[in-house]
Design brief:
Chain lengths: 799, 321
């Protein structure tokens, strides 16, 4: 409570600083589509003071009375400038026009230019439009795989969209789609992400120095904003690829006031495979598919009020149907649904409020059987939330954010049911886990001097596991000795904590700065995994009586510099991170062990730490664009119950990680992209000794993750051929030939994955070959690789 | 009972279109440990096989195998009436008949027993033969190391019935099937079981088809979810580790067939023994399995690896028809 009072006190103090100046405020929009632009720079030329637009394209400039030239700049758009006579608050909405296509130099479109300016460290914006020209596995453009090319971000494995940031686990990434949490961001067991790039406007990844307005995760934020939809005219885009097709339609509902966008994607491996499957064959009727549907609508009531509704729905379905008696058959559907309704309200030029109502749902289920034996497994998580986020611009030196949020979580822990014939096995349905999560935060981005800017904030978070709940009272041997029932709403365990966040930038020259940050983050949910790769069977486990919240401290510092006329930006960052209350399943635990006991009975607890250095060089302008990143890092864990408490490398510990991403725009029709990655081999646990029991070879494993697989490296290429942007039209009466812009554009993208056909290790295993009867028995080590060289072609269009 | 886990893995395995190659892995030197494989059953003498671990890529030829047996150990078993020292019996100095018995009891390939000198510690002293309900302490001293363990022979639980049932992999198939059993689990929690079976019918050459009992994958289970219930279960035909029999690699693999006679051992074991056998099964069965997290067999031996187990045996026979 004391902190809340402190917050209010701080706020009132800052507001009073603002007296005596006027404001210029408004939205920056793309003139062609009506989409608001996120992160556009708006500044007064005379004072060289400026700001950037927020997630909703809104900006506020505080200036003393006078006449100013207000300039808007945004890469890929024409710079605008307007003269404003400031003697009262001024409303200035800016329409930005895209640069003519035939400019000499190709530029990255729609990207922030604040490498050295902002206090933010470890923050990267991804240019969505650029993604389609980069090589992709089977031609499926993938946001999550593209961010894996950034320093400090590591892939979960070959072709996998799961990612790890600065030594944090996959559960420590806060993935937001229009403010709603996405719990499982992948399809097809991790090979594709759930984000359909056609429907996405902006992607921001925060690796370190997480601002106080984000919370609930300890490693990173991936904030994805969906397109609002074109409010000027009806347009569409889509594509046909090897494994899926996409279609997006957008247009005005009421011109200039309201628009919608609907985007869908479905894979058709199952449809394509069907004609080739013998209808009487062993597994006729089996199939796999996934689909996504994104939809969003917005309505602008006035310049002060705007409403958004956005939703995502995606499902994976895997079915295996044996046509013969005795063969197994099963069905596994899983997927996410998210929904968010938002209301932007501008109270006055200096105060902006966004209210969000959120619903998020992730469900996994498995139904299978063989003969008389049937087996079911399900888990899930449901969130209902409300957020109030204020942006306040009390003076030109301060930019405040504060707000409160609340989420009601319902977790379904792994629920198993098994039957053999008519006999139902006695497996209790575990209680759903219900929890309240709430937070209040305040942060100020403050220009202390012209050279020093500080972003200081604090977040107070609270989490309570509440009834109804059935707790198994366990004796020392882990056997149930009793049951305690909690009544609905009864608090079983509550946690709260302060999360201070601090980052600062000190300008060291016209195009260079040093930055430093510190943060403490709390996370009240954990992801527990039985497998060594991310699977939909992984279960989200909330904090409770025995499971303490994850706590992370991160310290980071960096040097940032723009080079050669800002054509290049470069940075070096170092970080150290401590992570407490990490979880793992105890050694040898199996999913079926979790029945008839507490949801946390199979868990063990420990700590982790990670440190590293990240080097990044990016070319933003010119025919050649792209970046090079190198990361040196070390990530360790220590659990009392694993390896006698000895530290061991985390599964996502990679000493060296290199990525190169290059784009080349040859002309208005041809463009090329290439990526190269190299990383130290993944840590894995292998047998070191063996012995015989009952005539069989038993493996004795090394300490956890005691081995390194061979390094991973891969080169991919892509070439994109667009149709001509213009066409010649002959006037029938005059015979005059004029050149006009085509309304309908299409392109072919040809890509090659793993161009030099490297057999990258996916996993190692040891086995024996031969028989002792023939006396040719020998132990062998095997490497399994997933993807050899894989060419693909995708056809895209938009109109 | 482990089939659930299998089903879960199948879809992903089906999707993996990868390739596989043999590689060389450098392993660190790790100190060797002693491994106990010891069993005591009602009415039978205890036996203990004492071996040492080997580096994973050491050759597994017969010499290496012979060298892995620890000889000259002092092995004692105590049922509360005082320790009884077990004798060292080595296979090459036994008669063919004794060797066959040796193979049957220990599960070791009889052919191997005559070519490699394999040693076991046992005794003819009937005072230490297994009795239901008694606790047995094991102590092993060898090369300066001491290993100890304790186990109990639990009450055997009889199966209500056992039978053979066609699997009908093909609708017209009238030959191949699985072994089935009906168990009524006693109304107390904590019962743990192990299923093992062998075909005792003779092959064309007149030999017993399975010289030893075999535990198929998933052979060990507990009554956590089935306490007090009566239910049916089935098991496939397990495969001898050293098998080169054609029916283990053709379409008959995993099936019993009409005409077989199957001896069934349904064994009651304690919780620690259950922990060992399930993790052992997981360890052996998950070799080559991407989703199997590495599991060391959870030993009940202090100072070493392996198992010292009392088996409460219920025996039955199935005639496949």
């Amino acid at each position: 409570m004391r902190s809340l009072i402190l917050l209010l006190f701080l706020t009132s103090g800052l507001v009073s600083l603002a007296q005596g100046s006027f404001t210029i405020s408004g939205y920056v929009k793309d003139a062609a589509t009506g989409e608001t632009l996120i992160g556009a720079n708006v500044y007064a030329k005379e004072t060289m003071t400026g700001t950037t637009t927020n997630t909703y394209g809104y900006y506020v400039l505080n200036l003393p009375a006078g006449t100013y030239t207000v300039v808007m700049s945004y890469v890929g758009f024409e710079e605008t400038s307007q003269t404003v006579d400031l003697s009262a608050d001024v409303k200035l909405n800016i329409d930005a026009r895209t640069k003519a296509i035939a400019t000499k130099e190709f530029e990255v479109v729609g990207e922030k230019v604040d490498n050295t300016e902002s206090t933010q460290m470890g923050t990267v914006d991804i240019d969505v439009q650029k993604l389609s020209t980069l090589p992709a596995l089977l031609g499926e453009v993938d946001i999550l795989k593209t961010i894996q090319y950034l320093p400090g971000v590591k892939s979960n494995g070959e072709g996998n969209s799961g990612f790890y940031v600065r030594g944090g686990g996959p559960d420590q990434n806060l993935i937001l789609l229009d403010n709603a949490t996405v719990y499982n961001a992948s399809h097809l067991f991790g090979f594709f992400s759930v984000f359909n790039a056609d429907a996405v406007k902006n992607i921001e990844l925060i690796k370190g120095g997480m601002p106080a307005n984000y919370g609930g995760r300890t490693s990173s934020v991936l904030d994805i904003t969906m397109k609002d939809g074109n409010d000027k005219g009806f347009h569409g885009q889509g594509g046909i690829g090897l494994i899926s097709s996409r279609l997006t339609l957008e247009g005005p509902i009421v011109k200039d006031k309201s628009s919608f966008i609907v985007s869908g994607r479905r894979t058709y491996i199952d449809v394509l495979a069907k004609p080739f499957m013998n209808p009487e064959g062993a597994f006729a009727g089996s199939g796999y598919y996934f689909y996504d549907l994104n939809a969003k609508a917005n309505y602008r009531l006035s310049d002060k009020d705007r409403f958004f509704l956005s939703g995502y729905f995606g499902r994976d379905v895997f079915e295996l149907k044996g046509s013969e008696p005795g063969s197994p058959d099963f069905r596994i559907p899983w997927g996410n649904a998210t929904f968010s309704g938002r209301w932007n309200h501008v109270f006055g030029p200096k105060l902006f409020l966004n209210t969000t109502a959120i619903f998020s749902d992730y469900q996994f289920s498995f139904k299978g059987g063989q003969d008389d034996f049937s087996f079911g497994l399900s888990s899930g998580i449901k969130d209902y939330g409300l957020k109030l986020d204020f942006n306040q611009y009390p003076s030109v030196r301060h930019s405040l954010k504060y707000g409160v949020n609340y989420t009601y979580h319902i977790y379904t822990p792994s629920t198993v049911d098994v039957a053999s014939g008519d006999t139902e096995f006695q497996i209790d349905t575990p209680s759903k886990l219900k929890a309240h999560e709430a937070a209040a935060y305040i942060q100020d981005d403050y220009d202390v001097t012209d050279l020093l800017r500080v972003n200081a904030g604090v977040r107070l978070s609270y989490f309570a596991h509440v009834g109804d709940f059935k707790e198994y009272i366990l004796d020392e041997g882990g056997n149930t000795s009793g049951i305690r029932n909690y009544s609905p709403g009864e608090t079983i365990k509550a946690y709260y904590g302060l999360e201070p966040r601090l980052s600062m930038r000190y300008t060291t020259g016209p195009s260079s700065s040093v930055k430093a940050s510190f943060n403490r983050n709390l996370q009240y949910v954990h992801l527990a995994s039985f497998s060594s790769i991310g699977l939909p069977t992984d279960v989200w486990i909330p904090s409770g009586k025995n499971v303490k919240p994850q706590v992370a401290y991160q310290y980071a510092a960096g040097y940032f510099r723009d080079l050669w006329d800002r054509k290049y930006e470069a940075s070096v960052e170092v970080y150290y991170k401590d992570m407490f209350n990490q979880i793992e399943y105890r050694e040898g635990a199996q999913p079926q062990d979790g029945g008839n006991t507490n949801y946390d009975a199979l868990l063990v607890f420990g700590k982790g730490w990670s440190y590293g250095a990240e080097f990044f060089l990016k070319r933003r302008l010119g025919k050649f664009t792209g970046w090079a990143g190198y990361t040196w890092s070390k990530t360790m864990r220590r659990f009392d119950a694993i390896d006698n408490g000895d530290p061991f490398p985390s599964r996502w510990d990679r000493r060296h990680d290199i990525s190169l991403v290059v784009g080349y725009e040859l002309n208005e029709r041809w463009s090329f992209g290439s990526t190269f990655v190299y990383s130290t081999g993944q840590a894995t646990t292998l047998p070191v000794q063996r012995y015989f029991i009952e005539g069989r070879v038993v493996s004795q494993f090394s300490e956890r993750n005691g081995f390194r697989m061979a390094p991973y490296h891969r080169l991919d290429f892509a070439a994109t051929l667009k149709n001509k942007p213009t066409k010649e039209v002959k006037d029938k009466t005059t015979g005059e030939v004029t050149t006009i812009q085509r309304k309908y554009r299409s392109s072919w993208t040809f890509s090659v994955y793993n161009a030099y056909n490297r057999a990258n290790p996916y996993f190692y295993y040891f086995t024996t070959e031969g028989t002792s009867a023939n006396n040719d028995l020998r132990p062998v080590a095997k490497q399994v690789s997933l993807f050899s060289i894989l060419p693909s072609v995708t056809w895209n269009f938009h109109f | 009972m482990k089939r659930a886990h299998f089903l879960l893995m199948l879809p992903v395995v089906a999707l993996l279109v990868g390739c596989e190659k043999e590689i060389t892995v450098e392993l660190p030197e790790t100190p060797e440990q002693f491994v106990v494989e010891g069993v005591i059953e009602p009415g039978l003498p205890p036996y203990v096989i004492l071996t040492r671990t080997q580096s994973y890529f050491d050759p597994i030829d017969q010499n290496a195998l012979a060298n892995s047996y620890v000889r000259g150990a002092l092995v004692t078993v105590d049922n509360g009436d005082g320790p009884v020292v077990l004798d060292q019996l080595c296979s090459t100095s036994l008669t063919d008949e004794q060797r066959a018995l040796f193979a049957e009891v220990t599960g070791i390939d009889p052919a191997l027993l005559s070519s490699v000198d394999i040693c076991v510690y046992s005794t003819a002293n009937t005072a230490i033969f297994g009795e239901v309900g008694r606790t047995y302490r094991l102590r092993v001293e060898a090369e300066g190391k001491v290993l100890t363990s304790v186990t109990k022979i639990n009450n055997p639980v009889a199966l209500d019935s056992v039978w053979f049932q066609l699997a009908l992999q093909r609708p017209d198939d009238d030959s191949l099937g699985y072994a089935w059993g009906t168990l009524t689990d006693p109304d107390t929690t904590g019962n743990c079981y192990r299923w093992m079976a062998r075909r005792i019918s003779r092959d064309e050459d007149g030999n017993v088809e399975d010289p030893t009992f075999i535990s198929p994958l998933g052979n060990t289970f507990e009554d956590k979810y089935v306490n007090g219930l009566t239910f049916d279960f089935s098991f496939i035909r397990g495969r001898q580790f050293y098998s080169d029999q054609p029916e283990d690699s053709n379409e008959e693999a995993g099936f019993y067939k009409v005409g077989d006679t199957i001896a069934v051992k349904f064994v009651s074991i304690g919780f620690n023994e259950h922990e060992f056998y399930t993790s052992y099964d997981e360890n052996v069965g998950s070799q080559g399995d991407l989703f199997g997290t590495p599991v060391n067999a959870r030993s009940n031996i202090e100072g070493g690896l392996g198992i010292w187990a009392g088996w409460g045996v219920y025996a039955d026979t199935i005639i496949c028809q």
